[in-house]
Amino acid sequence: MNLLPFIYLGAKHMVTGYDHLLFLAGVIFFLYKRKDIALYVTLFAIGHSTTMLYGVYAGVNVNAYLIDAIIGLSVVYKALDNLGAYQRWFGVQPNTKAATLIFGLFHGFGLAAKLQEFEIAGDGLLPNLLAFNVGVEIGQLLALSTILIAMGYWRRTAGFFKHAYTANVAMMSAGFTLVGYQLTGLFVS
Prior knowledge:
The protein is mostly helical. It has one domain. It is built from 8 helices and no strands. It has helices at 3-16, 18-28, 34-57, 64-82, 85-90, 96-115, 125-155, 160-188. The chain is globular and about 55 Å long.
């Protein structure tokens, strides 16, 4: 068992995982109350923890390019949601809690695909997976704290609502770029 290295790997993956960070930033973009932020982050964590643990432990082999393309789409989805697109286009607001949980499940399969690149001994598999997951949650809390501090300062400026549209369009563009990059990798590999 290598618990500390797996905790470190999990934290590092989350702190450097720009796709996860973009989605997380999109989820909390217009959330102001701590209980709402905690609820959505918990739903996301439950989703990605469940499929990460299940995917690796059960040996579910999902194509990393395909999952990462779906993660890119989750960023696009959330940016469009923040822009009010679904309300304007379809006259309905999707259930944002369910969407956060469902996209968390996809993000977890992305984590599982990364973890499956390591050769983890069967006798230490579960403790190492749990250690990696603890690291992911530590990394997520560190990243979330940084995002919330930056967003807190930005929200207090007169330009927040003026630039919120542009920020979400940029987030959506980044999501589409991720989708294109991952689909290209899928087709040329």
